[in-house]
Amino acid sequence: MSEFGDEDMDYSDQDQDDYEDYYNAERDVKSPPYCPDPEYFPVQCLTVDEVEKFLNELVEQLCNSIHVTPSMSKVLLYENKWAVQEVLWKFEEDADKLFIASRMKTLQPVSKKKKIEEFICAVCVAPVAKDLGITSLACGHCYCDNCWRCHFESKISQGVSTELSCMALNCDLLVPEEIVLSAVNKPVLRKQYQHFAFCEYIKSHPLLRFCPGANCNVVIKSVECLAKKATCTQCETSFCFKCGNDYHAPTDCVTIKKWITKCADDSETANYITGNTKECPKCNICIEKNGGCNHMQCLSCKFDFCWMCLGDWKAHGTEYYDCSKYRENPQNGSESAKAREALKRYLHYYERWENHSKSLLLEKQTSAKIKERINSKVMTSKGTWIDWQYLLDAATLLAKCRYTLQYTYPYAYYLDNGPKKELFEYQQAKLEAEIENLSWKIERAETTDRAELENQMDVAEKRRGTMLQDFFQT
């Protein structure tokens, strides 16, 4: 059984009702029905054709409202993150209707063809050929069509599409696609331009994200841009919808970006602590970690200790899992002493971050061993796959909990000292203790342990959910 009793967990029906009342009161009326999972985030997985239809509907809506061409509408929507109503408000506020050319920094819907008589192009410094024309944009810059074509083709070859602007110096007016396509006649470049532009339209839309999965062409659509876990139904890749990176709850997008950057900068400094072997604190024999659980037992002297702090494992159950907390050592001395303390603090959190990352990889090996164990049991008529399914469910939950726990360390590292940090570290320690108990039980589970294991699963998931509800800001 878990070392935490019902009084310690304090998950009463009344508390559950309070949670529901609080979260229901804060919910938008248009949100989906209340779901107790704090990571619940409804998304749609769209094909390329479905995305094109969705964007074209917005373009058509704007075209019908202010009577501009589709290419002009795309530029305006791209500049305003596809907020149709915002474009309409700006149009209504401008009495002269000149925002298309000036305030919005875009071009007029149609380029103007000027007479060729006595015109010298400022780019090629030559008279315009008889079979060519002159294109004047809304900014007033005029060049021959041949120079415009060369400019467009050069930029497209460099991967520029929606940001393709006038070629005059310091002129940043954007060029609508109808002007670009009318000038570019190479099929390969035309196709390349349209592909780049389509990708940029998706990236600029706050409610659309490309699935980051390898070779996956799905586009994820949501109703809100939140730092929630979006999962692709085609390749099952999960990511943070807001920033597009790996899902990182309870750490917010800005903090995790700072943490990843810091880890990349200081990785060489931290490499020496990421080894896979340590000495037993009692008999000093070398021990290799071959599982995800941090509860270690020396095969030589049978001493139970914590892989992280090398302390007696029994001490972890007296109050709560205390080795996850960093204890400050105030330094009033030299700058070098303060720098050493800062490095020591960083390494404390980095070691635990890296350890759980490695433990997640080891959990995959544990899952493979569980499948082999189940197969062996089934082959010897000791139950069916359904009878042993709870072991796979436990392994899946363990990986889920450990993933969340890994991302609590960047959060704690950047959290200011105070009551909030004390509460966070308390819940973090509780979660870590339950995860290690769950990992220990999974690695040694048999059919007689099913009720105990399922109880531990429930406790661990409640701990995880409570931490996300209390600290994860989307």
Automatic annotation (TrEMBL):
One of its GO terms (biological process) is protein ubiquitination. It catalyses: [E2 ubiquitin-conjugating enzyme]-S-ubiquitinyl-L-cysteine + [acceptor protein]-L-lysine = [E2 ubiquitin-conjugating enzyme]-L-cysteine + [acceptor protein]-N(6)-ubiquitinyl-L-lysine. Residues 1-23 are annotated as: Disordered. Residues 117-327 form the RING-type domain. It is an enzyme of class 2 (transferase). Residues 428-470 form a coiled coil. Keywords: Coiled coil, Metal-binding, Repeat, Transferase, Ubl conjugation pathway, Zinc, Zinc-finger. The keyword Metal-binding applies. Its EC number is 2.3.2.31. Gene3D superfamilies: 1.20.120.1750, Zinc/RING finger domain, C3HC4 (zinc finger). It comes from the Eukaryota. GO terms for molecular function: ubiquitin protein ligase activity; zinc ion binding. The keyword Nucleotidyltransferase does not apply. Belongs to the RBR family. Ariadne subfamily. This is RBR-type E3 ubiquitin transferase. It comes from Cinara cedri. The lineage of its organism: Eukaryota, Metazoa, Ecdysozoa, Arthropoda, Hexapoda.
